Amino acid sequence: xxxxxxxxxxxxxxxxxxxxxxxxxxxxxxxxxxxxxxxxxxxxxxxxxxxxxxxxxxxxxxxxxxxxxxxxxxxxxxxxxxxxxxxxxxxxxxxxxxxxxxxxxxxxxxxxxxxxxxxxxxxxxxxxxxxxxxxxxxxxxxxxx
Length: 145
Known about the structure:
The protein is of the alpha+beta class. The protein has one domain: Aminopeptidase, CATH 3.40.630. The chain is built from 4 helices and 6 strands, in the order H-E-E-E-H-E-H-E-E-H. It has helices spanning 12-31, 79-93, 109-114, 141-144; strands at residues 37-44, 50-59, 62-69, 98-104, 118-123, 131-137. Strands 1-2-3-4-6-5 form a 6-stranded mixed beta sheet. It is globular.
């Protein structure tokens, strides 16, 4: 098989999509169907423009929250909590038992801890502050209320 490696920084999404698809197929062949499904919730302003939200995926019974952003003026009003509540409820409906995410020391560790997340790992000095990896066991939908 011949091949070449080239830099394609200007088309990151295409590379990411190709790598993700191949990785999912490889993993599924080794450990069974992942059930991979993206998940996203948008925060929109009064003009319908996306100004924040949550993005991630469910696979292998886990919800992974890749990105979560609440604009500064909306913080402290329960918006982040509502995003997580909706993502967790959707994950439970998809059969997930747990969720994981990562956050920086200067971001939202305390916020996640107040919502039941616990730290299972720390990457120090990334880049100058710690990056924390957190998880939480999910409850069935009847227990979410």
